[in-house]
């Protein structure tokens, strides 16, 4: 169980770094608005939207596993 929690934590960190990298590259190339909308009609719309949703899900799973491991 500890390995799964560590793996999801690493996955969450990598996903957040990828999201930050994509946003930073888009800002530096003045293409941030071309990536909009990220989430519309209650679902992710492009690669950035899916990455954000996956990062949030991995973070949530990691936190839940950490909380249940301590008990």
Automatic annotation (TrEMBL):
Keywords, comma-separated and alphabetical: Membrane, Transmembrane, Transmembrane helix
Domain of life the protein comes from: Bacteria
Transmembrane stretches, start-end: 7-27, 47-65
Keyword Transmembrane helix listed: yes
Keyword Transmembrane helix recorded: yes
Protein name: DUF3923 domain-containing protein
Natural source organism: Lactobacillus melliventris
Phylogenetic lineage: Bacteria, Bacillati, Bacillota, Bacilli, Lactobacillales
């Amino acid at each position: 169980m500890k390995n799964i929690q560590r793996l999801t934590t690493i996955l969450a960190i990598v996903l957040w770094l990828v999201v930050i990298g994509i946003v930073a590259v888009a800002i530096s190339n003045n293409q941030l608005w071309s990536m909009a909308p990220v989430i519309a009609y209650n679902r992710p719309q492009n690669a950035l939207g899916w990455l954000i949703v996956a990062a949030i899900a991995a973070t949530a799973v990691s936190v839940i596993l950490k909380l249940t491991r301590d008990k």
